[in-house]
Structures are given as structure tokens and as C-alpha cells.
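We were asked to recover a plausible sequence for a given structure. The inputs and outputs are reproduced exactly as logged, with field labels preserved.

PROBLEM: sequence recovery
POSITIONS: 418
GIVEN STRUCTURE:
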């Protein structure tokens, strides 16, 4: 795909045996991919390789290809198990040279912290012949950049706090220097209330016609992001191109699109409340405070969030919100009338403009044939009356609770649109 657009393919190799255990995740490649995509480049392959010289050498060779950019992270430390320098040198058929200036720099760095450099740190002074040395202001391992036979290779340290500044200061400018001058424009849609495969079925016929802009779909719980990223000679062209594709996608999704600037739902809803000088209160059962947490995670939410009620038991629903015990007995706590009564009670007791309620079966126990796990009701009370909607959220307890919060925020958003 990159090749079709005259752009180099990028491959990432994360080095470190700890990244092959269940307790440590390779987050560097995710961060790098995000940065590369922002330049309009695509990562075509990535891998995680343990601290093994021969395997790493083989992985680097396997990544070779005309015009390729190969980014390595990790394995530049001072210990025996840090083998990236040796493996890359071997893959390129080059030798390593000891560089006095690096030792001097390392000694100064240690002295600045009032320590003496250990002898093993001298391992970090080996540089692949012909490589540029990339300074590392945040650690002891310098990076390296080598160009050979149309391939560009970067060696970067593993700690994220060292990798990120080095990529921004040293690698990103070198990558961009090899690209045609271009402007990049990204349009981000965020969508709620539709599943990933349904969404893709709707919009794939549009976006698959274009390799520029590049389309990425990121699905979270009841929250999908669509990124359209155009790379053009001028900013006007790039803007026009994302707008062209956006104009075809928007009518297919309609008001399920809640954001066009990347803002999450709680921010969008907060803005809408603020613009209307309205307030909201919440009454939560199965989400146990998560809805209030989402709303109040936004700075400035004190202007529109009245407060909330955490009412798990029937007694609390009655005691705090005035839900009629007969209604609870007749319909059960997870029902349309109870969701309405909870919302009404929260609105009356706080004097807020709107109130949302959540009641549902988050599981894993408590489901019945009629009311399986994931069944829930969101109630909304506002100036135009009271309403409740039934939902069937899917997934485990965590997903169900997240989906419920998202549905509640969306119900309020829809109430304010119309
Ligand atoms: P190294 O450069 O291999 O000595 O890595 C030093 C430390 O950086 C490791 O112990 C990890 O904690 C962290 N690290 C290395 N690679 C990664 C990666 N791909 N993603 C996140 N953290 C990493
Ligand atoms: Mg390591």
C-alpha cells in the first residue's frame, strides 16, 4: 500500500525477552506506529524478538527490502543480554568500532550524577561502521542510524522515556528528509451505537476505493474511531481529499457520529450541557459510579454535573430516589419503569436539568432466559419528559459496564440534539 503511494514501507522490531512474557507489553511499537501514521507512513510488519543474537540477526535480515525503513527498539543496554548492536552489525555485514567520544560522554554523564561509570557501560560505546551516532539525553544508550543499499535502519533504546524523545529529535526528521514534501491532514470521526462489523459493512464500499486517504478503524467498547489520513503535496489538497471521503461516509452513519475532532463522548456531552446552561445528575446501579466518573473526568464538569446516587439495592433505590417498592416488586430492578423512576428521582432531588439512570445485569451471574446477562435499561428525565431504553450489551462484566456508560452518555447527547 505504501509502495503504491511512492512511500517507504516501515518495519518495527522490538527487542527484549521480557516482551515475550505475559507481564510486559511492547508499547513502543504502538507509539511508533502512531507517529509514523501521522507522517502518512504505514507499518507493514512488526515483530518481537528475545535477547538472542542469532535470532535477531535473522529477523533483521528478513526485514531487508528495497526502500525499507527498519526501526529497532531495545537491547542497547550495557549488559550481556543486550545484543542489538552486534546483531545489526552482523546482518549488515559490518563491524563494530569502539568510540572514545561515547565513553567520554558516558563518563561525564555518570560524573554529573556523582557516580563512577561501571566497566560494562563501555559496551554502549560500540558503533556500527558507517552509522551516525544519535545522542540520548535521557539515558546511557546512544542510538544509531545506518543507510545501506536503499535500506535505512534505526537502533533506539527500549525505555519509552528515551525512545520517544530520540524518535522525535533524530529519527523523524531523517525519515521525513527522504520523503517528497507533503502535507498531512487527518479527519477523525467517533461513532457510538453500532458494532464494528456493521460499521465496516456500511463504509467499506467507500473507503476501500481510496489508498489516499488511508483509513484506519479503531474499535473500543461501544465507541469506534474512524481515521482518514490524506497525504498530498499541499495542505489544501489534503484537506479537500479527506473532506471528499468524509462527505461520503457521514450520511451512511448519520447521528451515530458524535465527534469530528477526536473528542470522547463525555467531552462532547459536557460541551452540549455547557452550551445549553444545563446540568445533569446520575443514578447508577450496575455501573457503580462509572458514569459519574466519566462525566467528572472532564475538567470544568463542575459547571454542569449536579451529582449522583449509587443505588445498588432496592432499599437504596427507594430510600434515596423514592422508587415505589410496589413498582420494584412488580417489574424487578432491571426494568423500564424502574429506570424511569430512578431518573425522575435523581432529577427531582438534585434540581438538575437532566438525569440519567442505569440499571442492568452486568453478570456473570443473575441472567435469566428472559433477561440474559447484558440486559439493561437507561432512563433519562428532562424538560421534555421521561424516557427509558432497553439495551442488550455484549461481552464480559467489564465490557457490559463500559458499554452501559457509553449508552447512557449517548442517550443524553441524542436528547440534546433533538
Ligand atoms: P533495553 O533497551 O532493552 O535495555 O530496555 C530497557 C527497558 O525498556 C526494558 O526493561 C523495558 O522495561 C523497556 N522496554 C524495552 N522495550 C520496550 C518496548 N518495546 N515497549 C515498552 N517498553 C520497552
Ligand atoms: Mg532489553
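RECOVERED SEQUENCE:
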Amino acid at each position: 500500500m505504501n509502495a503504491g503511494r511512492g512511500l517507504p514501507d516501515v518495519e518495527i522490531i522490538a527487542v527484549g525477552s521480557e516482551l515475550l512474557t505475559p507481564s510486559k507489553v511492547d508499547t513502543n511499537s504502538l507509539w511508533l506506529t502512531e507517529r509514523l501514521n501521522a507522517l502518512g507512513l504505514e507499518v507493514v510488519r512488526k515483530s518481537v524478538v528475545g535477547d538472542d543474537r542469532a535470532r535477531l540477526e535473522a529477523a533483521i535480515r528478513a526485514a531487508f527490502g528495497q526502500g525499507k525503513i527498519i526501526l529497532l527498539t531495545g537491547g542497547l543496554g550495557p549488559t550481556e543480554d543486550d545484543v542489538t548492536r552486534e546483531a545489526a552489525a552482523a546482518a549488515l555485514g559490518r563491524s563494530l568500532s569502539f568510540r572514545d567520544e561515547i565513553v567520554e560522554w558516558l563518563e561525564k554523564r555518570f560524573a554529573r550524577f556523582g557516580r563512577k561509570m561501571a566497566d560494562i557501560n563501555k559496551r554502549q560505546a560500540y558503533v556500527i561502521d558507517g552509522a551516525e551516532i544519535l545522542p540520548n539525553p535521557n539515558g546511557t544508550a546512544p542510538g544509531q542510524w545506518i543507510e545501506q543499499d536503499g535500506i535505512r535502519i534505526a537502533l533506539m533504546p527500549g525505555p519509552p522515556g528515551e525512545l520517544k524523545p530520540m524518535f522525535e529529535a533524530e529519527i523523524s526528521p531523517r525519515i521525513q528528509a527522504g520523503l517528497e514534501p507533503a502535507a498531512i491532514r487527518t479527519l477523525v470521526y467517533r461513532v457510538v451505537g453500532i458494532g464494528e462489523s456493521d460499521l465496516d459493512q456500511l463504509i467499506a464500499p467507500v473507503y476501500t476505493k481510496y489508498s489516499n486517504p488511508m483509513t484506519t478503524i479503531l474499535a473500543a467498547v461501544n465507541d469506534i474511531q474512524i481515521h482518514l489520513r490524506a497525504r498530498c503535496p499541499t495542505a489544501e489538497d489534503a484537506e479537500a481529499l479527506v473532506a471528499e471521503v468524509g462527505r461520503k461516509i457521514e450520511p451512511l452513519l448519520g447521528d451515530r457520529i458524535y465527534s469530528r475532532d477526536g473528542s470522547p463522548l463525555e467531552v462532547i456531552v459536557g460541551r452540549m450541557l455547557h452550551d445549553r446552561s444545563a446540568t445533569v445528575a446520575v443514578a447508577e446501579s450496575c455501573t457503580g459510579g462509572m458514569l459519574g466518573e466519566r462525566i467528572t473526568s472532564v475538567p470544568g464538569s463542575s459547571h454542569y454535573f449536579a451529582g449522583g446516587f449509587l443505588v445498588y439495592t432496592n432499599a437504596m433505590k427507594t430510600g434515596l430516589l423514592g422508587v415505589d417498592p410496589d413498582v420494584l416488586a412488580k417489574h424487578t430492578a432491571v426494568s423500564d419503569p424502574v429506570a424511569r423512576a430512578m431518573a425522575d428521582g435523581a432529577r427531582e432531588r438534585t434540581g438538575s436539568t437532566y438525569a440519567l439512570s442505569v440499571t442492568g445485569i452486568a453478570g456473570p451471574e443473575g441472567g435469566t432466559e428472559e433477561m440474559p446477562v447484558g440486559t439493561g435499561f437507561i432512563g433519562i428525565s428532562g424538560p421534555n419528559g421521561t424516557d427509558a431504553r432497553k439495551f442488550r450489551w455484549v461481552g464480559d462484566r467489564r465490557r457490559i459496564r463500559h458499554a452501559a456508560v457509553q449508552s447512557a452518555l449517548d442517550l443524553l447527547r441524542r436528547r440534546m440534539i433533538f
